[in-house]
């Protein structure tokens, strides 16, 4: 099952102007942005701040701009605490930016890090079909959507398996299949491989890549710490200290991060 359950029309998304986040004290200044049609995600100058218990306004995201072309798999990388998850939650509509402009194609789905939070129904088939209840579909249509979605993530042979017998990565793939069955256009994936062993990691990333490539309509943004996952990406965004530092093809981001790491190591040697 996918938990995103975000709204489903494919229109311009404007964040809710009436924030429910009690930590925010800054008035919102959100305007619609001019959307380039071939981008599934387009955010400009996104800022997000929180107010600490001592009443101090703390910026978490600083003027982040991001553009993800439709039908591609992009990765969002950066050191711990740089703001990746916060940016992803803003794109998902789970948090409202303090200011900036944002468009994300819909339907969009957010898949969480912990595989045990992803699946709730007794069998794989029931779990993938779970979200389809809100559509007016015949049984045949439900079966066909479930079967295509499980095929895309390489889980067709597991249709009748009890979910508690699946590995963490298999549960993640079932969650992604749930999103695909609902005709999700944007997958927002938050460090899915953190709790997985190497085999499971590769299974999940390949499933996402295949879902993106085989449909031509699905776009995925994958938050990760793992540089080796960049080889599957069409492009990547690198963040540091709440800012988007670099935005481009996977190879150039890889070179940039390696250069950053070696300069950091050299600094340590000099100390
Ligand atoms: N509600 C909040 N109140 C205070 N600080 C917050 C809040 N939300 C996020 N932060 C801080 O903002 C920074 C960015 O957090 P975020 O989880 O987005 O980073 P991240 O890059 O995803 O980190 P990681 O890779 O470790 O998961 C961190 O320093 C975090 O402690």
TrEMBL record:
Q: Which Pfam families match?
A: ABC_tran (PF00005)
CDD domains registered for this protein in UniProt: ABC_cobalt_CbiO_domain1 (cd03225)
Q: Which SUPFAM superfamilies match?
A: P-loop containing nucleoside triphosphate hydrolases (SSF52540)
InterPro entries per UniProt:
AAA+_ATPase (IPR003593), ABC_transporter-like_ATP-bd (IPR003439), ABC_transporter-like_CS (IPR017871), ABC_transpr_CbiO/EcfA_su (IPR015856), Molybdenum_import_ModC (IPR050334), P-loop_NTPase (IPR027417)
- Transmembrane stretches, start-end: none
One GO MF annotation is: ATP hydrolysis activity
Q: Which GO terms describe its cellular component?
A: chloroplast envelope; membrane
Gene Ontology process terms (BP) = transmembrane transport
- Tell me the ranges covered by the ABC transporter domain, including all copies: 41-266
Q: Which UniProt keywords apply?
A: ATP-binding, Nucleotide-binding, Transport
| Family matches, as PROSITE patterns | ABC_TRANSPORTER_1 (PS00211), ABC_TRANSPORTER_2 (PS50893)
- What name has this protein been given in UniProt? ABC transporter domain-containing protein
């Amino acid at each position: 099952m996918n938990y995103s359950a975000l709204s489903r029309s494919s229109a311009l998304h404007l964040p809710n102007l009436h924030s429910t986040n009690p930590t925010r004290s800054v008035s919102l200044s959100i305007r619609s942005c001019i959307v380039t049609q071939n981008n599934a995600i387009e955010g400009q100058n996104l800022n997000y701040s929180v107010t600490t218990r001592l009443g101090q306004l703390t910026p978490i995201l600083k003027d982040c701009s991001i553009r993800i072309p439709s039908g591609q798999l992009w990765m969002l990388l950066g050191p711990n605490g740089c703001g990746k998850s916060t940016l992803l939650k803003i794109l998902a509509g789970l948090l409202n930016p303090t200011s900036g402009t944002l468009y994300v194609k819909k339907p969009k789905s957010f898949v969480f890090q912990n595989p045990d939070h992803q699946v709730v129904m007794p069998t794989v088939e029931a779990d993938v079909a779970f979200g389809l209840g809100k559509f007016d579909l015949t049984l045949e249509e439900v079966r066909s959507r479930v079967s295509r979605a499980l095929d895309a993530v390489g889980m067709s042979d597991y249709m009748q398996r009890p979910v508690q017998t699946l590995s963490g990565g298999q549960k993640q793939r079932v969650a992604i299949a749930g999103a695909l069955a609902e005709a999700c256009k944007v997958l927002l994936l938050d460090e899915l491989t953190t709790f997985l062993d190497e085999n499971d990691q590769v299974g999940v990333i390949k499933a996402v890549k295949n879902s993106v490539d085989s449909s031509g309509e699905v776009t995925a943004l994958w938050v990760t710490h793992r540089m080796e996952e960049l080889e599957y990406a069409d492009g990547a965004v690198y963040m540091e200290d709440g800012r988007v530092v670099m935005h481009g093809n996977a190879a150039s981001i890889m070179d940039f991060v390696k250069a950053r790491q070696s300069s950091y190591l050299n600094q340590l040697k000099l100390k």
